[in-house]
Amino acid sequence: MGNPAGRSEARSEIRSVIDKYGFTFKKGLGQNFLTDDAVLEKVASAGESRCVVEIGPGFGVLTRELARKYEKVVSVEIDDRLIPILEETLCDFDNVKIIHGDCMKLDFAGIIKEEFGDKTVSVAANLPYYITTPIIAMLLEKKLPLKNITVMVQKEVAERICASPGGKEYGAVSVMCGYYTKPEIMAKVPASAFIPPPKVDSAVLNLRVLDEPAVKTNDERMFFRVVKAAFAQRRKTLLNALYNGGFGTEKSVIEDILTRLDINPSARGETLGLVEFAAVSDEFCKIIGKR
Q1: DSSP letter string over 216-260?
Q2: Higher pLDDT, 133 or 2
Q3: Which residues pair with 205 in a beta bridge?
C-alpha cells in the first residue's frame, strides 16, 4: 500500500520538519502523524463537497493535499507549538485558514457559517485515538451541514462502527453511526505508516452523512437512551438491561413492550437493528409520556 515507508515523500518532509524545529511528541495529545503518500491521497480525495474542515493537521502534509483539491480548507489544531510550523509549511496556500483550539470546545456551527456560508462541508481528520468516538459523536449530534467525514481511526474502532447486528463488534457506536451515516472502511493502514508508530493498526473510515436519519423515531433523545441502556450491560438480557436503564418503568411493562414488538426479552441488545431500536424507543415514549 503506497510507497514503502522509507521512500515516502511525506515521511521525509515530516522528519525534516521535526529536525528543524526540534519537535517532540506529546503523548497526552495522541500525536501520530500519517506519512503514507497513497493513504494521504485517499483521504484527501474522499471529500464530497468543495469545502473542508480538517481536525488535527499536524505538520500540514494532508492539509496541503486538501488545499490543492478543494476551494477552501479550515484546519483546527490544538497544539500551539504546531501553529508556526503550519504557517510555514502552508505558506504557499491562500485558501487555508488555521484555527488554534480544542475541537471539542469550538463552535463548529458558527465556524462553518462564518467561513463557508451556506455551503455544505466535508471533514477530514487524523484524530488521537482516545478521543475519536467523542469527536465523531459531537460532529454528528450537532447536525452540522456535513456531506461526509473521513477520519483515521483505530482499526478495531472502524470495524465496530461498520458492524452489523448480531456480532460482538456491534454496539452503541455502530447504531449511532448507522443512524446518521453510511459508514465504509476505505483502507487499512499499518502502524509503520505513522511517525511515531502507534501500538495498533489503523483504518481510513468514511462516514457519508445521510440527508435524513436511517430510521424515523418519535423522539431521538429517547432512541439513544434506549440504545445506551441496551449496551450498557452487554451480558444482561435486553429486558434486564432496559429495566436497569433508569426509565422508571416496571419490568413487566418493558417485557410486554418487547413481546408486542416480537422481540425476545431474553435476547441481547446486540441482536437489535435500527428499526427495532426505533420501535422500542417509540413505545417507551408512549409509556413514559403517560406518567
Answers
A1: --S-HHHHHHHHHHHHHTTTS-HHHHHHTTS----HHHHHHHHHH
A2: 133
A3: 151, 185
Q: Give the Cα-Cα-Cα angle 19, 25, 28 (nearest 5 degrees).
A: 170
Specify the 3-state DSSP secondary structure of 150: strand
For residue 174, pLDDT beyond 90: yes
Residue with C-alpha cell 445506551?
A: 228
**pLDDT given for residue 6 in this prediction:** 41
pLDDT, tens only, 158-171: 999 999 999 899 99
3-state secondary structure of 98: strand
Only one residue has cell 439513544, namely: 224
Q: Is the pTM of this model over 0.70?
A: yes
Helix (H) or strand (E) holding 153: strand 146-154
| 259-271 tens-digit pLDDT | 999 999 999 999 9
Helix (H) or strand (E) holding 124: strand 121-126
Neighbouring CB atoms inside 10 A of 146's CB total 23
Length of the chain equals: 291
What are the grid coordinates assigned to 257, written together? 413492550
Residue 101 near residue 76 (C-beta atoms within 8 A): yes
DSSP 163: P
Choose among 11, 125, 7: nearest CA to 66. Answer: 125
What is the grid cell recorded at 155?
482499526
Predicted confidence at residue 289, as pLDDT, reads 60
What single-letter DSSP state applies at residue 194? E
